[in-house]
Amino acid sequence: xxxxxxxxxxxxxxxxxxxxxxxxxxxxxxxxxxxxxxxxxxxxxxxxxxxxxxxxxxxxxxxxxxxxxxxxxxxxxxxxxxxxxxxxxxxxxxxxxxxxxxxxxxxxxxxxxxxxxxxxxxxxxxxxxxxxxxxxxxxxxxxxxxxxxxxxxxxxxxxxxxxxxxxxxxxxxxxxxxxxxxxxxxxxxxxxxxxxxxxxxxxxxxxxxxxxxxxxxxxxxxxxxxxxxxxxxxxxxxx
Length: 239
Known about the structure:
Oligomer: single chain
């Protein structure tokens, strides 16, 4: 009797493994998917264009339009989403063209993975490398390296929120940055060993550099490019 039950259990496990392998094989084709539930909602295996619920896939070969819910993939490509995205690499491009962005093209939620590349994300990014290519965003970046750069039209972009990592970079960060190196930014508050900003409200570190005359520097050495000599480089405090 014991052997029969074990046999049944083993056969069931084999069936589940084969079924999942079949679904993932089907999902490997671009924009193809199998849905348990409805066409637009439920549990999906693959890469539906628009979906609500839980989605599993190996690699998204083409970018989907919009999804709400839980996303679990090795590599995800979704234009906008609301919910949780767990992927080794995730890419969210919200820019409709080089010079415009639609108001609806925002993603809200939590993204966790090794590499996170987003257009406009309001929420939390956790990863080894987080980067944003957007006009603006609100949220938190936690990683080894966090980067918020100019968008594709080379217009300055803004992140309102918080960056914490070994290296933090960004053209427009309105908020708090904590890291060993905080470089290439316009921030409200930078705390680190080396802080290099275009503009800064408050810098606290071993060496602080600011290009434009704004804010207060507290550190071992503080350099303000626009100050007159001999007040460009001062110890302890500069303003």
